[in-house]
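Dear colleague,

As promised, here are the two records you asked about, laid out in our usual form so they can be pasted straight into your sheet.

NAME FIELD: protein one
SEQUENCE, THEN STRUCTURE:
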Amino acid sequence: MNRLSRIFPKVDPFSLQTRLTIGVATFSALGLASLASWTSWKMQEILIDSHKENIKQIALRLPRDIEIYNDMLPVEIALQKAIDNRSDSNILLWVKSVDAKIIAKSTNFNLVSPSHVTELTSLSKMPITAEVNLINGRYFILYGEELKLKGRYLGKLSIVKDITNDQTMFIAMVKSLTVASILVIIIISLIIAIYIQRSLQPLRHISQMTAAIKPENLAETKVDLSNAPSEVKDLAKTVNMMLSRLSQAWEKERQFTSNISHELRTPLTIIYGYLQSMLRRKQNLTEIQLEVLETAASETENTIHILEELLDLARADSGYLRFNLGTYRINDLVNEAVEMAVKNSSRQIEIEVESDPIMVKVDHQYFIQVLLNLIDNGVKYSDPDTKITIKLKRSENKGIIQVCDRGHGITLQHQSRIFDRFYRIDEARTRSAGSTGLGLSIVKTLVEGMGGNVTVSSQVGEGSVFTVSLPRLPDNTSDN
């Protein structure tokens, strides 16, 4: 059972393996079934034809036998003598006169009961060509023709041959052949399935390797199938070329993001500083000038914030994002993040603790950034008169933080992409709310970098719940 489960781990009705197996097995089954049927039909034909030929020979030679015996005996005795000479235990002959009376009949036909003989001899019409009939559960070949002697009509000759034994043996042989054919078809189907499964193993290997590819290991990933068929080797070569081009494109994009972020952050910081300096001298500015400078300073600050997030993502992609992990109580970190969030927002933020202090190993700075991003996301996408709730829970080996809002909610269509970079559900509303589309992507990168994961569950019109799960340390662990 275990071996079969390893060979056939799961049957996918739409897979290439299943389709090939069913197709080849079906054609093999049809071929074997057709061959078995043709063989059975041909053997039946040969068997019946041999019996028919035997009856025809009897009908052909009987008049000559009668003529020979008639030279020495009266015609009635000669007729009976010839019939007994040509009949045996499974061949019955009789001759009926014009008035349908039997004038001669085989005396040594003893395989069937008298009732069968009576029923056979009472048949009013016999076929002029030999044919097989089933009478009372037994198989007979029937034949009839006119019997003449030197041009004189003697009567109607009827010949019956009992082939029940041969037919029964043939039917038993056909049943055995059918069972054997079914077993052969099953065995062949299993062999075909195993062969196809092994033949497709290189393709499955390519699929597994490509499924495990991540942006950070594109350059090192290579599909190597030395023992695969030539066509699969060509496919692997094409996949390797594609991976190489993707790696180059990813590296160029990452390098461009990093470079442009570095190059733009310094001049924008300088510009922001000049704008702030001018705003501090607002007594010398007109109302319109003050409004323009405030708008420019705000947009510059937002742009610097975007560049900093891009730099964080670029460092994470390059593996240069370093985590200074330490042991902390989630409760303390959440309180600290909430205090910072309240200073920048008038929104009510509530903390619900369902367990004792939870110890985790995280980077203090990045963890606070994760919470602030999630709180800021809830503030931006919920009505001002609703509160943000942070719930602290524990599972068997996880510390769980849930940031809940009563906002507009996220449809299932968008939930799968909510953590993608620059992904916005509503362009107009997110821009007006100051969203860059990078906050949740930063959250996912930082949480996974600390060994945890983040998910979202949401219902339209009821709000969203972002859940951060981190490995939990034993309760007796001392914190920093």
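NAME FIELD: protein two
SEQUENCE, THEN STRUCTURE:
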Amino acid sequence: MGEGCCRVDDHSDAAARAWLNEALRKVEADANRSADTHLHVFPLPPDWGVDLYLKDESVHPTGSLKHRLARSLFLYSLCNGWIREGTTIIEASSGSTAVSEAYFARLLGLPFIAVMPRSTSPEKIELIELTGGRCHFVDQPGEMYDEARRLAAQTGGHYLDQFTYAERATDWRGNNNIAESIFEQLALERHPVPAWVVVGAGTGGTSATIGRFIRYCRFDTRLCVVDPENSAFFPAYESGDMGHTTGMSSRIEGIGRPRVEPSFLPTVVDQMMVVPDAASIAAARWCTTVTGRSVGGSTGTALWGALRKVADLRAEQRPGSVVTLICDGGERYAHTYYDDSWLRGQGIDIAPFTATLERFAATGEWAEPDL
């Protein structure tokens, strides 16, 4: 063999490429089978001149917005050569992302381990385990990242790292991402370009995708990111200190983080709003009552912010539309947000916030609770 040549195991390489091709086919086939999620009209008086829409991400095969993220992370890792046949998949997740990733790992016949806080809802733990995943618990949320890396090194596996790769694994220019889907579904509405899109931030990937898409398409839409208590995103956004940490976990699963995650892009956010946990839970329960669709706490956070933007448009006498997301279903939180004894144990009183919502629905006027 001449100098500079190298030996290639053609059989091994062909087998690896064949496995990759089949893995990609399976992931893409899942997307092909899953119809786009619905955009529901939230019931508001037509004469208000403002329409509110809920993009229902709970109807994905794994029941949440995170199905999109998990699919993108697997495609990204497969095409980068990070996932191969037999690779153990590791993720740091408080629940819904892990549920979706466990689904895709099983689809590809790969072992999956979710590293999560012990406080994660039992419903989510059960869903992960039913899908064939294994849960590995830590005492503090901030411990998840290093423990996930340690397990990946120990098993020779791959740490998907949603918090770093969420903003880059999704094609923000289009390709049926959530932003493109929203604007296509609004095309025949009376206000097809929304004044505001309101979302929460967990990884920051959804807000990054939507914010970039809005700018890329030159829409006049503004992006509002809502943040629960104890999260680092809002204080970092307000101060400009992206190194801000809280050392505390969010009680609203799926959003809010003790640190600013790498996928959070403050430069594509037009406004941030802090929503009290009691308001998030009150809005989730109220939404379930009003629409008949059971929703989780992060949906409540987003809905509270979206209704605030509806109230702002009314106060400004500006017709328009507002869009937010149903992130997941309320059935995952039967033992927490929908359990009155859990609320009492947490010292959460939702009554004043429920009264605000009911008064707004009746009068169209927003008044913050007098606590």
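A couple of things worth noting about protein two: Residues 10-33 form the longest helix (24 residues). The domain at 66-166 is CATH 3.40.50.1100 (Rossmann fold).

Best,
R.
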